[in-house]
């Protein structure tokens, strides 16, 4: 279900639209000497993730050559969308797949196929253009690897690979990728974009193409075509039509009050006036510590949150910089970065005050609150000049033990926990062996979680995956440095220490 605006202006729920798909894409080349198989099994209902209960209706027929751009014109620079009213010799069939006898047609003729899928009150349609040529051209398909939702997210790279079927596949000598963009002044005409080479991180003559993140424009309609040629001069093609999602826009975000005291002042972080057709919107409030590590205050559907905060960067007048990401239901996001607040440490930093906060930390059973206290304590410990190295190491050990004990269930949890571990391990001279043991176990678990999230290829999580990877890399780097220092300072018992560390 998705939220939408009803006629009375209120929010209401409705089912997602069906998605109709014909294997091969919007345009293909097939041989006149073989039957044409039309397959709609990739169509699906987003509510269930499959096509169970959906009906499939196929309509197909030929169109005059003057009704559609030729393949030569397609290669050169533009094409015109097909006119369905020009369809002749119509045929009708039903089912997920059907077969058209190409022998009844002429070579160099074009067939238009229209698939309509239906379920309950919902319907969806898609068109495929089939160019008929002599012989047995390779059957080319496109398979999406990354950014494969119904709408492509501009802030995430798009990865597509070509797949070939048929006896000619081993004879392919060249690939060529072409991108077309809809003309806003004439929506039936699509123009070739000559800057695809700058947009892609892969050669345009390779089997796979990767279009860089932030290269596509939100709200635009595109067609990505791959053309192949064989040693026998057969040509194959597949065209993938898609829309780039339009991210949320028009809003602002604020933090009030503008300054306060760590672990004492309650700050109100809020966003307003963000609009988008694909609702609901989700909000993520992240802050950056003085050492570059990232942590999260809130991630969810609420556009505001009241929270205490850790202290800011002492070298920049205790400034704590925030990044807010607003994301729609498709995964398209906008990042709001012009947000900062001054969060000072508590006034009197003594070993007794630090000890009191440590006792409070040990009693906490909420990860979010524990991270705020832990990051503030780590800054306070670094400022307290009367503390001996051994006492600092012991305090850090208590902090690391507490944070490592929390179960990390998701990426926001991972960011919060790793921000503490990375900070606690930063000064290798004040890291105990036990802190290394606690950290190793926690980082190992978080690395496994990060890998599973990355392999899932959920594009809405990619920004968090990147930040989590940065945090884990920094934490692991600090841990290795601290381990090296500890080993060098305890060379007499290095074998015993190493055995304990490995365990």
From TrEMBL:
Cited Gene3D superfamilies: Immunoglobulins
InterPro entries hit by this protein: Ig-like_fold, PKD/REJ-like, REJ_dom
Location relative to the cell: Membrane
Keywords: Membrane, Repeat, Transmembrane, Transmembrane helix
Keyword rRNA-binding set for record: no
Annotated ranges, domain REJ: 1-334
Molecular-function annotations in GO: monoatomic cation channel activity
Family of the protein in this entry: Belongs to the polycystin family.
Protein name, entry field: REJ domain-containing protein
Species of provenance: Desmophyllum pertusum
